[in-house]
Amino acid sequence: MQENSNFNHQADIVNSATRFINSWFKQSKSITEELNDFFILPNGKVIGKDVILSRLKGIFGKSDEYVGGRYDIIDVNLELLSNGKGMGFVEGVAGYRDVLQKESKIVSGPFKLFFALQGREWKIVNIEFPGFIY
User: Residues with Cβ < 8 Å from 20, sequence gap 6 or more?
Assistant: First the structure.
């Protein structure tokens, strides 16, 4: 029974990561649906979703568009805790062409999206993604 539960949770994390990545490539405002209300940075600092949204607008505002986005998910890991909570991550590699005034550069590298489960929803609580800077 636990395996089925893990499989569904794993599919939820992968689907959420896929929606985030595809929204990133489109520079879409719907990217916010996958984000938690607060983020936990590696140094233990906690910042609000509004700070992340502001950062995303700044990053997206520097480019005309992203072209040819591709990604591969290499690993998915999760741990279910008590009280309907859990933590997990999705990692892989991603790349896209960042276009600004008909000039472009390739942005690529590893990514890792960290998730927290609260109730029945997995939300992103930390982002390591090519082109994203805190």
Answer: 31, 34, 113, 124
What CATH number labels 2-128?
3.10.450.50
Could you tell me which of 55, 132, 49, 133 has the C-alpha nearest to residue 94? 132
Residue 39, Cβ density class (10 Å: 0-12 exposed, 13-18 middle, ≥19 buried)? buried
pLDDT digits (tens, 9 = 90+) for 85-134: 999 999 999 999 999 998 999 999 999 999 999 778 999 999 999 999 98
pLDDT tens-digit map of 69-79: 999 999 999 99
The amino acid present at 4, given as its one-letter code, is N
Tally of helices (H runs) and strands (E runs) in the chain = 2, 6
Domain limits, the chain: 2-128
**Could you tell me the pTM of the whole model?**
0.90
